[in-house]
Amino acid sequence: MNQARKGIVRDALGIGIASGAYALSFGAISTTAGLSLLQTCALSLLMFTGASQFAIVGVIGAGGSVWVGAVTAALLGRLEWPRSRCF
């Protein structure tokens, strides 16, 4: 395996390990908050900002409504939107 390919594989493994740890953490927190496996998977597929995912699960876990959690997640995502356009 050449040097360039080794570097690509090393970087890909680092991203995969970090993403996997994040996914396990989100799954554990959402399950503890009372969401089903299907609901957790849907949130992961439909929300692309991690902070918004954790925000909606935090609100639901604390006894808030889904709508309040969705508004909180949307506002948090709105704060991140300008920064995402810089890259």
Please give a structural write-up.
The two termini are about 30 Å apart. The longest helix has 30 residues, at about 5-30. This protein has about 90 residues and is an all-alpha fold. It has helices spanning about 5-30, 35-45, 50-60, 65-85. The model has no long low-confidence stretch (mean pLDDT about 90). The protein has four helices and no strands. The chain has one domain (about 5-85). Helix 1 (about 5-30) packs parallel to helix 3 and helix 3 packs antiparallel against helix 4 (about 65-85).
Give a concise summary.
This protein is mostly helical and 87 residues long. 82% of the residues lie in helices and 0% in strands. It is flat.
